[in-house]
Write a structure and sequence with these properties.
Blueprint: E1 6-10, H1 18-35, E2 38-42, H2 46-52, E3 55-59, E4 66-71, H3 81-84
Parallel strand pairs: 1-2
Antiparallel strand pairs: 3-4
């Protein structure tokens, strides 16, 4: 499908290594910037949700009710969480 009005993404990067995941996040943001496609992105990764989203919906488990909606008022472009800590582990 070439230009969908809505993309539904359920943990699309969950099985990827950190480098590929970061790259795919950037690709997804580029699609959003160019096409303004609405995306519903399911993730358990809070950094990923904040990096990609303009609002985060928190859900309770079973029966899947919405606990809250948090607006993310950070400007784009945002710093990718995978690139945020390049020296991680250097002190260990």
């Amino acid at each position: 499908m070439r230009n969908p009005k809505v993309l539904l993404l359920d943990e699309p990067f969950g099985a990827l290594d950190a480098f590929t995941r970061g790259h795919m996040q950037e690709v997804l943001l580029d699609i959003w910037r160019r096409n303004k496609t609405m995306m519903i992105f399911v993730t358990h990764d809070i950094d990923e949700a904040v990096f990609l989203g303009n609002r985060v919906v928190i859900m309770d488990p079973r029966p899947g009710t919405i606990r809250g909606v948090i607006p993310i008022d950070l400007p784009y472009p945002r710093k990718n969480p995978a690139a945020r800590s390049r020296n991680f582990g250097a002190a260990y």
